[in-house]
Amino acid sequence: MKKRLIFLLLGVSILLACTMTWLPTPPNIFVVTLEAQTLPITKTVAWDANAPADAVTNYVVRLDAAIVGSPVGTTQLVTFTSLGTHTITVVAQNLWGVSAPATLVVNVIAPTTPANIRLQ
Hints:
Elements: E1 6-9, E2 17-21, E3 29-35, E4 41-47, E5 58-63, E6 66-69, E7 75-80, E8 84-94, E9 97-98, E10 102-109
Parallel strand pairs: 3-10
Antiparallel strand pairs: 1-4, 2-3, 4-7, 5-6, 5-8, 8-9, 8-10
């Protein structure tokens, strides 16, 4: 099975900012930073479908090692309930086994401090 890239889609939820950082990490690991105004915050994770020849029956999506879904499609909602670093992994599954994981690291942070506070 081929490894596929995971993208975090910015859906309908409260979000102040999102930056995607391409760090020198091992292949198939990507890092995203979210400034969350409130928690929990729910996002949609999406990835490219495997080739039909891979005969994928479903994908398995994990958030911090806990399975959050086994969709047959290429999206899954994930909910972050705490600030900090979280790991999302997706593997493709078929009758013969599972693929290597594609990994997305999400840093959920509080909004930054306002700058240049003053009286006018």
